[in-house]
Amino acid sequence: MPTIRRLPELLINQIAAGEVVERPASVLKEVLENSLDAGSRAIEVQLQQGGVKQIRIADDGCGIDKDELGIALERHATSKIASLDDLECVATMGFRGEALASIASVARVTLTSRAQGSPHAWRIHAGETSPSPAALNSGTVVEVSDLYWNVPARRKFLKSEGTEFGHCDDAFRRIALARPEVAFQLQHNGRVSLRLATGDMRRRCGDILGEEFLEHARVIDVEAAGLRLSGFAALPAYARASRDAQYFFVNGRFVRDKLIQHALREAYADILHGSKHPAFTLFLELDPSGVDVNVHPAKTEVRFREARAIHQFVYHAVSRGLAATIGAVAATAPR
Ligand code: ADP
Ligand code: MG
Protein backbone atom coordinates (compact mmCIF):
# COMPACT_ATOMS: atom_id res chain seq x y z
CA MET A 1 0.00 0.00 0.00
CA PRO A 2 1.42 3.46 -0.82
CA THR A 3 2.00 5.73 2.16
CA ILE A 4 0.11 9.02 2.29
CA ARG A 5 2.23 11.89 3.55
CA ARG A 6 1.94 15.62 3.87
CA LEU A 7 4.04 17.50 1.34
CA PRO A 8 6.59 19.97 2.63
CA GLU A 9 5.71 23.68 2.30
CA LEU A 10 8.36 24.36 -0.34
CA LEU A 11 7.09 21.58 -2.58
CA ILE A 12 3.49 22.76 -2.14
CA ASN A 13 4.54 26.21 -3.30
CA GLN A 14 6.51 24.80 -6.21
CA ILE A 15 3.46 22.85 -7.36
CA ALA A 16 1.32 25.98 -7.11
CA ALA A 17 4.02 27.89 -9.00
CA GLY A 18 3.46 25.53 -11.92
CA GLU A 19 0.09 27.21 -12.44
CA VAL A 20 0.98 30.86 -11.93
CA VAL A 21 4.66 31.13 -12.78
CA GLU A 22 4.85 29.92 -16.33
CA ARG A 23 7.64 32.25 -17.43
CA PRO A 24 9.18 35.64 -16.56
CA ALA A 25 6.14 37.42 -18.00
CA SER A 26 3.86 35.76 -15.45
CA VAL A 27 6.12 36.92 -12.62
CA LEU A 28 6.06 40.41 -14.06
CA LYS A 29 2.26 40.38 -14.23
CA GLU A 30 1.94 39.35 -10.59
CA VAL A 31 4.40 41.89 -9.22
CA LEU A 32 2.97 44.69 -11.36
CA GLU A 33 -0.51 43.90 -10.08
CA ASN A 34 0.79 44.05 -6.53
CA SER A 35 2.25 47.49 -7.19
CA LEU A 36 -1.07 48.69 -8.57
CA ASP A 37 -2.98 47.23 -5.62
CA ALA A 38 -0.60 49.19 -3.37
CA GLY A 39 -1.88 52.43 -4.94
CA SER A 40 1.32 53.25 -6.85
CA ARG A 41 1.42 56.25 -9.18
CA ALA A 42 4.77 55.47 -10.79
CA ILE A 43 6.24 52.04 -11.49
CA GLU A 44 9.66 51.19 -12.93
CA VAL A 45 10.53 47.77 -14.25
CA GLN A 46 14.05 46.60 -15.04
CA LEU A 47 14.56 43.29 -16.77
CA GLN A 48 17.82 41.45 -17.29
CA GLN A 49 18.10 38.79 -19.99
CA GLY A 50 14.43 38.66 -20.83
CA GLY A 51 13.50 38.64 -17.14
CA VAL A 52 15.10 35.23 -16.60
CA LYS A 53 18.19 36.67 -14.91
CA GLN A 54 16.28 39.35 -13.03
CA ILE A 55 13.01 41.22 -12.77
CA ARG A 56 13.25 44.29 -10.59
CA ILE A 57 10.22 46.40 -9.98
CA ALA A 58 10.18 49.62 -7.99
CA ASP A 59 6.96 51.36 -7.02
CA ASP A 60 5.83 54.31 -4.92
CA GLY A 61 2.90 52.53 -3.30
CA CYS A 62 1.89 52.16 0.34
CA GLY A 63 4.80 49.87 1.17
CA ILE A 64 4.89 46.88 3.51
CA ASP A 65 5.34 47.14 7.25
CA LYS A 66 8.56 45.69 8.67
CA ASP A 67 6.64 43.07 10.64
CA GLU A 68 4.70 41.98 7.56
CA LEU A 69 7.57 41.60 5.10
CA GLY A 70 8.03 37.93 6.02
CA ILE A 71 4.29 37.23 6.02
CA ALA A 72 3.91 38.75 2.53
CA LEU A 73 6.09 35.91 1.25
CA GLU A 74 4.01 33.22 2.93
CA ARG A 75 1.42 31.20 1.13
CA HIS A 76 -2.22 32.28 1.57
CA ALA A 77 -1.16 35.53 3.20
CA THR A 78 -2.90 38.60 1.82
CA SER A 79 -3.95 42.07 2.90
CA LYS A 80 -6.70 42.17 0.28
CA ILE A 81 -9.50 39.93 1.53
CA ALA A 82 -10.51 38.58 4.90
CA SER A 83 -13.79 36.77 4.23
CA LEU A 84 -15.91 35.12 1.57
CA ASP A 85 -17.98 38.30 1.37
CA ASP A 86 -14.82 40.22 0.45
CA LEU A 87 -14.06 37.66 -2.23
CA GLU A 88 -17.43 38.21 -3.84
CA CYS A 89 -16.85 41.91 -4.39
CA VAL A 90 -13.08 41.98 -4.70
CA ALA A 91 -11.82 45.17 -6.33
CA THR A 92 -8.08 44.49 -6.19
CA MET A 93 -6.11 42.61 -8.83
CA GLY A 94 -4.81 40.13 -6.27
CA PHE A 95 -6.56 38.32 -3.42
CA ARG A 96 -5.25 34.75 -3.39
CA GLY A 97 -2.12 35.51 -1.41
CA GLU A 98 -0.17 33.00 -3.45
CA ALA A 99 1.94 34.86 -5.97
CA LEU A 100 4.90 35.88 -3.87
CA ALA A 101 5.12 32.49 -2.13
CA SER A 102 4.95 30.69 -5.47
CA ILE A 103 7.54 32.94 -7.09
CA ALA A 104 9.86 32.65 -4.08
CA SER A 105 9.73 28.86 -4.34
CA VAL A 106 11.20 28.86 -7.85
CA ALA A 107 13.40 31.99 -7.85
CA ARG A 108 15.48 34.12 -5.49
CA VAL A 109 13.28 36.90 -4.13
CA THR A 110 14.13 40.03 -2.18
CA LEU A 111 11.60 42.55 -0.88
CA THR A 112 12.68 46.01 0.16
CA SER A 113 9.99 48.32 1.42
CA ARG A 114 9.31 51.46 3.34
CA ALA A 115 5.82 51.50 4.79
CA GLN A 116 4.09 54.88 4.80
CA GLY A 117 5.10 56.74 7.94
CA SER A 118 8.04 54.45 8.68
CA PRO A 119 11.35 56.23 9.46
CA HIS A 120 13.29 53.96 7.15
CA ALA A 121 13.09 50.92 4.92
CA TRP A 122 13.56 47.19 5.59
CA ARG A 123 14.66 44.33 3.41
CA ILE A 124 14.03 40.62 3.52
CA HIS A 125 15.41 37.80 1.37
CA ALA A 126 12.89 35.00 0.95
CA GLY A 127 13.92 32.18 3.27
CA GLU A 128 15.29 34.48 5.96
CA THR A 129 13.40 34.92 9.18
CA SER A 130 13.87 38.59 9.94
CA PRO A 131 14.34 41.75 7.88
CA SER A 132 17.37 44.00 8.03
CA PRO A 133 17.51 47.79 7.68
CA ALA A 134 17.74 49.15 4.13
CA ALA A 135 17.74 52.42 2.23
CA LEU A 136 14.68 53.38 0.21
CA ASN A 137 12.78 56.67 0.02
CA SER A 138 9.32 55.20 -0.38
CA GLY A 139 7.34 52.31 -1.75
CA THR A 140 8.55 48.83 -2.51
CA VAL A 141 11.26 47.19 -4.59
CA VAL A 142 10.74 43.55 -5.53
CA GLU A 143 13.67 41.66 -7.04
CA VAL A 144 13.15 38.25 -8.58
CA SER A 145 16.37 36.63 -9.81
CA ASP A 146 17.38 33.39 -11.52
CA LEU A 147 13.93 32.08 -12.33
CA TYR A 148 13.78 28.28 -11.99
CA TRP A 149 17.35 28.07 -10.69
CA ASN A 150 16.17 25.12 -8.58
CA VAL A 151 13.77 23.55 -11.09
CA PRO A 152 15.91 22.46 -14.09
CA ALA A 153 12.98 20.67 -15.74
CA ARG A 154 11.10 23.96 -15.89
CA ARG A 155 14.11 26.02 -16.88
CA LYS A 156 14.41 23.93 -20.03
CA PHE A 157 11.10 25.31 -21.26
CA LEU A 158 12.23 28.91 -21.12
CA LYS A 159 12.70 30.34 -24.61
CA SER A 160 15.33 32.70 -25.96
CA GLU A 161 15.99 36.01 -24.24
CA GLY A 162 14.21 37.85 -27.06
CA THR A 163 11.12 35.67 -26.86
CA GLU A 164 10.87 35.95 -23.07
CA PHE A 165 11.35 39.71 -23.28
CA GLY A 166 8.57 39.83 -25.88
CA HIS A 167 6.20 38.10 -23.47
CA CYS A 168 7.21 40.47 -20.68
CA ASP A 169 6.62 43.43 -22.97
CA ASP A 170 3.13 42.10 -23.79
CA ALA A 171 2.29 41.61 -20.12
CA PHE A 172 3.59 45.08 -19.31
CA ARG A 173 1.50 46.71 -22.05
CA ARG A 174 -1.66 44.86 -21.05
CA ILE A 175 -1.36 46.13 -17.51
CA ALA A 176 -0.30 49.66 -18.39
CA LEU A 177 -3.13 50.05 -20.89
CA ALA A 178 -5.82 49.87 -18.23
CA ARG A 179 -4.10 52.34 -15.88
CA PRO A 180 -3.40 55.64 -17.69
CA GLU A 181 -3.26 57.46 -14.35
CA VAL A 182 -0.08 55.56 -13.47
CA ALA A 183 3.33 56.33 -15.01
CA PHE A 184 5.28 53.28 -16.17
CA GLN A 185 8.77 52.62 -17.39
CA LEU A 186 10.22 49.43 -18.81
CA GLN A 187 13.95 48.78 -19.19
CA HIS A 188 15.64 45.79 -20.69
CA ASN A 189 19.34 45.12 -20.13
CA GLY A 190 19.85 48.71 -18.98
CA ARG A 191 18.04 50.35 -21.88
CA VAL A 192 14.65 52.06 -21.65
CA SER A 193 12.30 50.27 -24.02
CA LEU A 194 9.01 51.95 -23.10
CA ARG A 195 8.17 55.04 -21.10
CA LEU A 196 4.57 55.94 -20.42
CA ALA A 197 3.61 59.30 -18.96
CA THR A 198 0.31 59.71 -17.15
CA GLY A 199 -2.60 61.00 -19.18
CA ASP A 200 -6.07 60.04 -20.30
CA MET A 201 -7.20 56.78 -21.86
CA ARG A 202 -6.85 58.13 -25.39
CA ARG A 203 -3.24 59.04 -24.86
CA ARG A 204 -2.39 55.72 -23.21
CA CYS A 205 -4.02 53.75 -26.05
CA GLY A 206 -2.07 55.83 -28.55
CA ASP A 207 1.19 55.29 -26.66
CA ILE A 208 0.67 51.54 -26.62
CA LEU A 209 -1.06 50.76 -29.91
CA GLY A 210 0.21 53.72 -31.93
CA GLU A 211 -1.41 56.81 -33.39
CA GLU A 212 -2.45 54.92 -36.49
CA PHE A 213 -4.73 52.73 -34.40
CA LEU A 214 -6.44 55.80 -32.93
CA GLU A 215 -6.86 57.38 -36.36
CA HIS A 216 -8.78 54.32 -37.49
CA ALA A 217 -10.67 53.77 -34.26
CA ARG A 218 -14.13 54.76 -33.17
CA VAL A 219 -14.84 55.82 -29.63
CA ILE A 220 -17.10 53.44 -27.76
CA ASP A 221 -18.82 54.70 -24.64
CA VAL A 222 -22.11 53.10 -23.73
CA GLU A 223 -23.74 52.77 -20.37
CA ALA A 224 -26.87 50.80 -19.51
CA ALA A 225 -28.30 48.76 -16.66
CA GLY A 226 -25.21 48.99 -14.49
CA LEU A 227 -22.85 48.12 -17.34
CA ARG A 228 -20.42 50.41 -19.08
CA LEU A 229 -18.31 49.71 -22.13
CA SER A 230 -15.75 52.31 -23.15
CA GLY A 231 -12.64 52.46 -25.28
CA PHE A 232 -11.78 52.24 -28.95
CA ALA A 233 -12.72 49.84 -31.72
CA ALA A 234 -10.80 50.08 -34.98
CA LEU A 235 -12.48 50.10 -38.37
CA PRO A 236 -11.76 47.31 -40.87
CA ALA A 237 -9.01 49.35 -42.54
CA TYR A 238 -6.90 48.70 -39.44
CA ALA A 239 -7.69 44.98 -39.19
CA ARG A 240 -4.71 42.75 -38.40
CA ALA A 241 -3.39 39.43 -39.60
CA SER A 242 -3.18 38.27 -35.96
CA ARG A 243 -5.00 38.96 -32.72
CA ASP A 244 -2.12 41.05 -31.41
CA ALA A 245 -4.17 44.24 -31.03
CA GLN A 246 -7.11 42.88 -29.08
CA TYR A 247 -7.40 44.17 -25.57
CA PHE A 248 -10.48 43.55 -23.49
CA PHE A 249 -10.62 44.41 -19.82
CA VAL A 250 -13.21 43.57 -17.20
CA ASN A 251 -13.02 45.94 -14.26
CA GLY A 252 -9.45 46.80 -15.20
CA ARG A 253 -8.37 43.19 -15.59
CA PHE A 254 -7.20 41.90 -18.98
CA VAL A 255 -9.26 38.84 -19.85
CA ARG A 256 -9.59 36.36 -22.67
CA ASP A 257 -13.17 35.24 -22.62
CA LYS A 258 -15.00 33.11 -25.17
CA LEU A 259 -18.30 34.87 -24.62
CA ILE A 260 -16.75 38.29 -25.14
CA GLN A 261 -14.77 37.12 -28.16
CA HIS A 262 -17.96 35.79 -29.67
CA ALA A 263 -19.85 39.04 -29.06
CA LEU A 264 -17.05 41.01 -30.71
CA ARG A 265 -16.82 38.68 -33.68
CA GLU A 266 -20.55 39.14 -34.21
CA ALA A 267 -20.24 42.90 -33.88
CA TYR A 268 -17.63 42.95 -36.63
CA ALA A 269 -19.25 40.23 -38.75
CA ASP A 270 -20.97 42.64 -41.17
CA ILE A 271 -17.98 44.81 -41.86
CA LEU A 272 -14.94 42.63 -41.51
CA HIS A 273 -14.46 39.78 -43.92
CA GLY A 274 -11.82 37.21 -44.63
CA SER A 275 -9.16 36.14 -42.20
CA LYS A 276 -8.41 39.55 -40.69
CA HIS A 277 -8.80 40.22 -36.99
CA PRO A 278 -10.26 43.39 -35.51
CA ALA A 279 -8.22 45.68 -33.25
CA PHE A 280 -9.73 47.14 -30.10
CA THR A 281 -9.08 48.32 -26.58
CA LEU A 282 -12.30 47.94 -24.66
CA PHE A 283 -13.06 48.33 -21.00
CA LEU A 284 -16.12 46.72 -19.49
CA GLU A 285 -17.12 47.87 -16.05
CA LEU A 286 -19.74 46.25 -13.91
CA ASP A 287 -20.48 45.64 -10.28
CA PRO A 288 -17.75 43.25 -9.00
CA SER A 289 -20.44 40.92 -7.65
CA GLY A 290 -21.61 40.35 -11.25
CA VAL A 291 -18.39 38.66 -12.25
CA ASP A 292 -16.40 35.83 -10.68
CA VAL A 293 -12.68 36.37 -11.15
CA ASN A 294 -11.71 33.40 -9.00
CA VAL A 295 -11.88 30.91 -11.87
CA HIS A 296 -8.22 30.44 -12.65
CA PRO A 297 -5.06 31.31 -10.66
CA ALA A 298 -3.85 33.71 -13.35
CA LYS A 299 -7.34 35.28 -13.44
CA THR A 300 -7.42 35.78 -17.21
CA GLU A 301 -10.68 33.86 -17.29
CA VAL A 302 -13.84 35.16 -15.69
CA ARG A 303 -17.40 34.00 -15.25
CA PHE A 304 -20.28 36.40 -15.65
CA ARG A 305 -23.42 36.01 -13.59
CA GLU A 306 -25.58 37.44 -16.41
CA ALA A 307 -23.68 36.02 -19.35
CA ARG A 308 -26.42 36.60 -21.95
CA ALA A 309 -26.99 40.19 -20.91
CA ILE A 310 -23.25 40.90 -21.10
CA HIS A 311 -23.02 39.33 -24.54
CA GLN A 312 -25.91 41.43 -25.84
CA PHE A 313 -24.59 44.58 -24.29
CA VAL A 314 -21.08 44.21 -25.72
CA TYR A 315 -22.39 43.18 -29.12
CA HIS A 316 -24.77 46.16 -29.42
CA ALA A 317 -22.35 48.71 -28.01
CA VAL A 318 -19.62 47.77 -30.50
CA SER A 319 -21.74 47.12 -33.58
CA ARG A 320 -23.58 50.44 -33.12
CA GLY A 321 -20.35 52.26 -32.42
CA LEU A 322 -18.86 50.93 -35.64
CA ALA A 323 -22.01 51.39 -37.75
CA ALA A 324 -22.69 54.96 -36.59
CA THR A 325 -19.58 56.23 -38.28
CA ILE A 326 -19.35 54.00 -41.30
CA GLY A 327 -22.97 54.11 -42.43
CA ALA A 328 -21.94 53.80 -46.06
CA VAL A 329 -20.00 50.61 -45.47
CA ALA A 330 -22.68 49.11 -43.25
CA ALA A 331 -25.39 49.92 -45.82
CA THR A 332 -23.69 48.01 -48.57
CA ALA A 333 -22.65 45.10 -46.41
CA PRO A 334 -24.82 42.00 -46.55
CA ARG A 335 -27.36 41.86 -43.75
P1 ADP B 1 -2.08 38.90 -3.16
O1 ADP B 1 -1.70 39.94 -4.13
O2 ADP B 1 -3.04 37.92 -3.72
O3 ADP B 1 -2.54 39.46 -1.85
P2 ADP B 1 0.75 38.23 -3.16
O4 ADP B 1 1.46 36.99 -2.80
O5 ADP B 1 0.89 38.74 -4.55
O6 ADP B 1 -0.79 38.00 -2.82
O7 ADP B 1 1.19 39.38 -2.16
C1 ADP B 1 1.05 39.16 -0.75
C2 ADP B 1 0.88 40.48 0.00
O8 ADP B 1 2.09 41.22 -0.05
C3 ADP B 1 -0.17 41.41 -0.59
O9 ADP B 1 -1.47 41.11 -0.11
C4 ADP B 1 0.32 42.77 -0.11
O10 ADP B 1 -0.15 43.04 1.18
C5 ADP B 1 1.82 42.60 -0.04
N1 ADP B 1 2.52 43.21 -1.20
C6 ADP B 1 3.06 42.56 -2.25
N2 ADP B 1 3.64 43.41 -3.12
C7 ADP B 1 3.44 44.65 -2.62
C8 ADP B 1 3.80 45.97 -3.04
N3 ADP B 1 4.49 46.20 -4.19
N4 ADP B 1 3.46 47.02 -2.26
C9 ADP B 1 2.79 46.81 -1.09
N5 ADP B 1 2.42 45.59 -0.64
C10 ADP B 1 2.75 44.52 -1.38
MG1 MG C 1 -0.58 39.60 -5.84
UniProtKB/TrEMBL annotation:
Belongs to the DNA mismatch repair MutL/HexB family. GO terms for molecular function: endonuclease activity. It comes from Niveibacterium microcysteis. This is DNA mismatch repair protein MutL. The lineage of its organism: Bacteria, Pseudomonadati, Pseudomonadota, Betaproteobacteria, Rhodocyclales. The gene is mutL. This protein is involved in the repair of mismatches in DNA. It is required for dam-dependent methyl-directed DNA mismatch repair. May act as a 'molecular matchmaker', a protein that promotes the formation of a stable complex between two or more DNA-binding proteins in an ATP-dependent manner without itself being part of a final effector complex. Residues 205-323 form the DNA mismatch repair protein S5 domain. Keywords: DNA damage, DNA repair, Endonuclease, Hydrolase, Nuclease. The chain holds residues 1 to 335 of 594 of the full protein.
